[in-house]
Every structure is written in C-alpha cells, then in structure tokens.
Input
Amino acid sequence: MRNNYIYIAVMAGVSFLIRVLPMTVIRKQIKSRFLRSFLFYVPYVTLAVMTFPAIITAAAHPLAGAVALAAGVLLAWMGGGLFPVAVLCSVTVFVMDALL
Amino acid sequence: MQDRTHSEHGHVFAQGARDGIPIGLGYFAVAFSLGISAKAAGLDPFQAFTASLLTIASAGEYAAFTLIAAGASYLEMAAVIFITNCRYILMSCAMSQRLDPETSTLHRIGMGTFITDEIFGASISREGYLNPQYTYGLASTSVLPWAFGTMFGVIAGNILPASVVTALSVSIFGMFIAIIVPPARKDPVVLFTVLASFLLSWLSGQVSLFSSVSEGTRIMILTVIIASAVALLFPVKEEQDA
Output
C-alpha cells in the first residue's frame, strides 16, 4: 500500500512546475515548430482519449452513455459552456438509465 | 499615486473575482464527481481537498485518482500528471508572451500557479499586458469551490443513490466534451484529431497489448503517439498560438 500523501505531493509538485517554469524561465517564443504543434494538439488528444469510450462504460447502460455523449457534443457544438454541457450529460444518463 | 495604483489593483482583482464566480460554480459541480473517483481511489475527504487545492486539474486529477486506485508507482504518477497537464506548458508559454517584461518573478510564479483551462482562457482574453491581479481575482472565487467540491464528493458520494452517483460521474466527461468541441468546430484538424483519438482509444481497449498496462499509461502512450503524428502531418502555422 503506497502513501496517499506522497501521491498528492507528486501531483501537486509536477503540476506546479509545469505551470510555473515556462512562464518564469522561457521569456521568448518556442522556436521548434514540431514542439509547438505537439503541445497545441496534446490537450485535445488527452481529453478525447479519456472521454471515449469511458463515457459509454460509466453509465449503467451503454446506450445511455452514448446518448449522453451525443447530447453533450451537440450542445457544446451549439456553443454551450462547461457547466451546461456537464449538467446535460449527467441528466441524460440519469434519465436514460432510469428508463432502460 | 501609490494609493491610486492600489485602488486600480483592487478594481481589477474585483473584476476577476466576479468573473470567477460562474467558473467556481461549474468547478464545484464537476469537482463533486471528481470526488467520487477520489473516494473510489481510497482518499479521505481531507486528502481529496488537499489534492484538488494543490493540483487544480480536472483531467490530471481524474487520471491521478485512477492511478492511485490501481496502486501505480510514484514515477508513473509523475509521468501521467506531466502528460495530462502538458497543455499548461503551452498556456504558460502563451501567457509569458503577454506579460509586461517588467513583471516580477514572484507574479510570474503566482499567475502560473493558477493556470487552468478556464482561468487561462479568461485571463488571456483581456486586452494588452496581462494584469496579475485579474488572474488572482479569478482564482479567489474558483479554486476553493473546486477543492471543496472534491471534498464533498468524497463525503456525499456514498450518501447518494447509485444512479445519482453514476449520473454525476458522467459530468466530468461532459466538461471534457465542452473543452474539446468548440475548437474542433473551428479547426478541421482539431476535429480530425478528436475523432482519431476516439477511434484509437476504443481500438486500444480491444487490443490485448494494452490490457496489461494501466489506464493512465494507456492515455499517456496514446497522447504521445497521436499528438506527435498530427504535429508531423499538420504542423501549426507560424502565427497560430495557444
């Protein structure tokens, strides 16, 4: 059994360095086009990989998760913000799981 | 003059604090579902509060709690936090380009500490040099709801019926969707990247090679491979930033 506080210290320490170091150390634009492109795409890949297929398996019924995904994508596509989209996905799963 | 500067600082801080309220409300709800993952990983309410207060990262914390639940090594934890929070490097770089060169190192550290998708987005959307006070204002009303939301998720996660917990646990994916869809709509390459990530993520779950590695490692490997491939195929234009 590993220690949760060491886990938390690692989480906090690495996050802090990632956020603070570039801003304090690098005072010029990053030159490497590959590195800039890589960093540009990273968030989208990470979040997409974490979302799918996990959202399908998180619901009691896979269909409920699939509908929540579709509803969330639709609302976000139409300009829905973080909070409304999160609520819609939750409500969709709750209602669908109850019906199925 | 000194007084005037102080009151201007106060005004900008107050603006940030006001703009941070809707962010904080959203954070509280999403953090609540994150707390359910924290509880599943065996964290107590205080540990979850501390983890959220000091890490302030939805995707990163979610991946981290998954790792804790799996009993991963500390090195794996560091690697996964690095990968899932990689975007903050880009945001930190982008913010560095928008600072008054005179901005002190202390303010650079202070502003960097609070970089999240939303705080970054709100901070960078303002005209001219970034004012540290605005970023601090944003953080003042959003970071604590994030930490308390996680704590209450741990406490109340087991009071609520299973169907409600399941529904709430999906809200974090809703938040991820809300972050990735708007840029995917604007940029066909981002849309392609998201769809390719969905497909490969699903495929990797079907391949026995990936069944032996943890969820965090799978995310990390896929991220490095897909983001590298897209960066080689579609390098960003020179003026395209953040």
